[in-house]
Amino acid sequence: MEHVNSVLLEGQLEWNFPLLFILAIIAILYALLLKHLTIIKIYHVRSILFFISISLFYLVIGSPLSVISHLSFSFHMIQMSILYFIIPPLFILGIPVKFKLNVLAYISLFLFAILFFLYHLPFVLQTLYQISYVHKGYTSLLFVLAILMWWPVVKLGNKRFAVWSGFLLTPACLLFIVNGIMGGITNPFLQGFALSLCLPEHINVADLLPFQMNPSVDQISSGIVMMGLHKFGLTLISRFTYTK
Q1: Is the pTM of this model over 0.90?
Q2: Given a cut of 50, is residue 9 above it in pLDDT?
Q3: Domain-by-domain residue ranges, the chain?
Q4: I want to staple 112 with a disulfide (CB 3.0 to 4.6 A). Which of 132, 145, 181, 182 is the partner?
Q5: What does the alpha-carbon distance between residue 69 and residue 77 come to, in Å, rounded to a whole number?
């Protein structure tokens, strides 16, 4: 079985070098713009946060972790939470401009909350995983909305908006916690992962997990992880908003 799994996973657990090239270009352009258009040094806290954001983006999207994250609810929510609650604030903190996006930010927040909740409904997930380009478009839209919804919190210190973001994202967290308390459901991530690997019917994708986690515990943990990382993102902002 181990030999079969290693063959099946060959080509799946790879680093995304085209994405790495694109992010490297973005980093170079950012450094050049800082040098020629601002007085901010490349080693300034703001610059470091920007580079950390694109490095984290590559780790959760372009590394083998992007595949492993779909083996359980908890792994998946760690990836999603970092992608939407940690990377956007860091990215925005690294941008040396400030302007208002109040109306657009509120629209983005509501859209993000709705789409993020729908994304984690099992039948929606299963549908998205069967159409790769739709899934990528959906998650890309969520990332853009995440940046727009974090903007007033990071740049303008809008605490009221921060409270609204926590309130509107709560249903997605509760979805996992309630399902876990009610006994859990079949992990839709595993089915999507199986589809992406094109596994033969006689092989159970759950065998690829390094350990077996109780579905109920897995879902409850994922909801708690999501709320915790969202709170961590807000704390991160309050720690670095002094950066000029």
Answers
A1: no
A2: no
A3: 2-240
A4: 145
A5: 8
